[in-house]
Amino acid sequence: MKILESTVERILPVNGEVMEKTQERLDSLTKPVGSLGVMEYIAKKIAGITNEVKPGLPEKASILMAGDHGVVQEGVSAYPQEVTPQMVMNFINGGAAMSVLTKHVGSELIIVDIGVASDLPEMPFLHKKKVAYGTSNMCKGPAMTREQAVEAIEVGIEVAEDCIKKGKGLISIGEMGIGNTTPSTAIISLYAGKPVEEVVGRGTGVDDGRLKIKIEAINRAIELNQPEVKDPIDVLSKVGGLEIAGMAGIILGASANRVPVVIDGFISGAAAVIATAINPEIKNYLLASHLSEEPGHKAMLDYLDISPMLYMNMRLGEGTGAALATTIIDASLKILNEMSTFAEAGVSEAIEE
Amino acid sequence: MKILESTVERILPVNGEVMEKTQERLDSLTKPVGSLGVMEYIAKKIAGITNEVKPGLPEKASILMAGDHGVVQEGVSAYPQEVTPQMVMNFINGGAAMSVLTKHVGSELIIVDIGVASDLPEMPFLHKKKVAYGTSNMCKGPAMTREQAVEAIEVGIEVAEDCIKKGKGLISIGEMGIGNTTPSTAIISLYAGKPVEEVVGRGTGVDDGRLKIKIEAINRAIELNQPEVKDPIDVLSKVGGLEIAGMAGIILGASANRVPVVIDGFISGAAAVIATAINPEIKNYLLASHLSEEPGHKAMLDYLDISPMLYMNMRLGEGTGAALATTIIDASLKILNEMSTFAEAGVSEAIEE
């Protein structure tokens, strides 16, 4: 428990003074004030996080946490559980969407086995940090013990800090885990205070029959386990997942080190909700990427008070939307650093109204 | 007139058969069917345009058309007209947002003086194709003659074809021209059949007083010139602009050569509306980039029946949103080309429902 507690204590407010100075520079650049919208917001937010008025281009890492879910026994997913380790191999072999997109944006892909239900071989780029062989079926009891939830968060903190020590300054997160929209739906239902029916979606693409099973399973798990919203670790252990806990740990670890984190879709959003429930200052360290097709994602982003930049009807997960967004974040920092001011370029400013 | 007519005749339907084969490949890749949303749509659309099931990564050009507007005499803009040539110098010197973003995405920036109201020096990267020293004040008569409108369109066709001959396979468009949201508003008001008040915006950021002047000026210009919606060249010449005509020409020229065009915000949207009114098949050659802060942009995209991928509250123009989108288009083509299929990766497919 010590690592988690000390990490949370190290999360400080972002620097408002630096952000004001960054805004002044943005307003002096050769464009109408505010006309680059979210690009300006991103540059300013990163300035506040990093304590630098003109933060340079960060080295990027995309961390992908893989874990399995006991609740798949209930028949909540369209894919068999064996797909989780198969996809881990695919990430490493370069054939997955996430492999292609991280290469495209120049982000190092780091894959963590935090809870895959089978043994994976030793492989380069694979960090073996298994906390358990998947969670237990949350319809029959808590998904994991409180100790396991804390351990998984601490794995995330450790992976993030290791990454940062190696020079990464921007972390995007993602996941792989057959069945993981089910615990994510339970989490947002609890924190948004909305019925499961309102925030549930089709995940990888279940039909009406499975969707009904999924809704019933989530409601049963909440009813049975009675997770306590005021205690995010309790929620995480009872109706969460190992990769969700791991991603919450990455967010906490990065924030404690003043490194911005880009979240992806519905599952990483659930991790961000848990991290923010642990420490509300976390919101200021998060950047949204895309709006997922999962209906509950909007409720998550509202809870986190952050707006997505990409509307692309994506629902793949892995961290694909977050990886794609990092190139827009790079572009935003280049705008701040490389554009000329009105004075430098000899361009006339707006007519005094 | 001959170039314009023959170009329009060369615009053929996109290849539906190729698109189906591309969809088959997309469905065989290691992801749930359809889960990459708009990325899949983009890859498929480009396949249909280029007649290739797996189109390779295109070389990119961003063409920026600069022109001035006589209607600024009415006081419709927050910036003085001298900003148009000043910004052209800024593009060439690398200090503008568009300079930074085209460099970021690896797109060649091509700047065309199609109607700047002053003389610009000889400079590398500047294509001097001036049709007139700005348009006339559309509140006092047509913005230009029909011959000038056609000439400006043909400049666009020529620049696009030149670009394509040099190997470019993806063209994004943008513009610079103080006052150019005013003619663009007139155009969308006419084609969407909506009152000016509903589709007008603040452009570079005018106050309430100037906004009122702008609305009155647009209504007066429409009233006075009586543009004929069924004749897009008539609309363009009476209430359009030289850079709008030039961009419409780029769209026509690229489509005739089966090269996709990425549109930017409100002004390039107006050009796309004109091009589509000339030949409705054009819609299938266009890719939207972002949703602009200008209220009328949504009406344009609805008219064009294309959806933006970026929601970033941008309203700068220049082609900034379009340039940014080209890296997402590259990513979409890489998904199609580089991902493994379920069979190749040994990943199990969805459980038969």
Report on the architecture of this protein.
Chain A has 353 residues and is α/β, with parallel strands linked by helices. Chain A has two domains: 63 residues, Orthogonal Bundle (5,6-Dimethylbenzimidazole Phosphoribosyltransferase, Chain: A, domain 1), CATH 1.10.1610.10; 271 residues, Rossmann fold (3-Layer(aba) Sandwich), CATH 3.40.50.10210. In chain A, 50% of the residues lie in helices and 9% in strands. Chain A contains 15 helices and six strands. The first copy, chain A, has a six-stranded parallel sheet, sandwiched between helices. In chain A, helix 3 crosses helix 14 and helix 10 packs antiparallel against helix 12. The longest helix of chain A is centred in the middle third of the chain and has 20 residues.
Overall residue-averaged pLDDT value of chain A: 97
The helix content of chain A, as a percent range, equals 40-55%
Oligomeric status: homodimer
The count of β-strands of chain A is 6
Question: How large is the share of residues in beta strands of chain A?
Answer: 5-15%
The CATH superfamily title of the largest domain in chain A: Nicotinate-nucleotide-dimethylbenzimidazole phosphoribosyltransferase (CobT), large domain
Computed CA radius of gyration of chain A, to the nearest angstrom: 20 Å
Sheet having the most strands of chain A: 6 strands, parallel
Shape of chain A: globular
Q: How many structural units, i.e. domains of chain A? A: 2
Order of helices and strands of chain A: HHHEHHEEHEHHHHHEHEHHH
Which residues of chain A form runs of ≥5 with pLDDT under 50? Answer: none
Distance N to C terminus of chain A = 59 Å
Please give the CATH class of the largest domain in chain A: Alpha Beta
Name the CATH architecture of the largest domain in chain A. 3-Layer(aba) Sandwich
Helix/strand class of chain A: alpha/beta
